[in-house]
Design goal:
The structure is a single chain. Helices cover about 30% and strands about 20% of the residues. The chain is an alpha/beta fold. Strands 1, 2, 3, 6, 7, 8, 9, 12 and 13 form a 9-stranded mixed sheet that branches.
Amino acid sequence: MPAIRVRHPYLDHPAPLPFAHRGGAADGLENTAAAFRRAVERGYRYLETDVHATSDGQLVAFHDATLDRVTDTRGEIGALPWRAVRRARVAGREPLPHFADLLEEFPDAHWNVDVKAEAALTPLLELLRRTNAWDRVCIGSFSEARVARAQRMAGRRMATSLGTRGVAGLRLRSLGRGALPVDRLLGTAVRRSAVCVQVPERQSGIPVVDRLFVRAAHALGMQVHVWTVNDAGRMAALLDLGVDGIMTDHIDTLRTVLTGRGAWV
């Protein structure tokens, strides 16, 4: 059972939540329909992806701002029309999916969506309104301003996670400094409308996730999801700390760890 009360239908699933990061990026086909199909076939119902908007406003599930790293095409997604982007192939094989198509193909999946560019925010919100997919999507971003803007535009029907600034505020709070005015002066006050916080275990060598951090998040009614964890030992250690979800590229490893703990649902 979840460590805290579920505040949004998106999180209505026995914790810990297993997330297929970019669909399970370890096979080299990250953020493709093929990767997401493989994850769903292995029982995953929480899928993590990223979105960019093309120059003509089409929403593409893709991590990088450019096509260069993982496709057979070059160029910046935001500067290209959909007709050009759709011709690119990940690993020379798989097309970039339109996020609307993913919502339709996997109607039972819950999506964790990192909004990588400002231009992608409005098309994403319009898609969620059109499809009434509010219960199936959680929006996150490194930019706290962007995700807070999404929350204001959509209201409480949208699930959001904290951006980097909010995470910093939560970390200060977890260390017993939340009452000091310095966190507000630095713009790191924690946004209470977020239903979860999604963080790396460490950042630049500095620990982020520990018992104090988990306790502080839970005290505010937020789940803690950790990315991107690919080692079975680290998965087990984080679960022992009480985290509520793990994002991984190695979906078979996470499933094995959770199954061994009687926590795979």
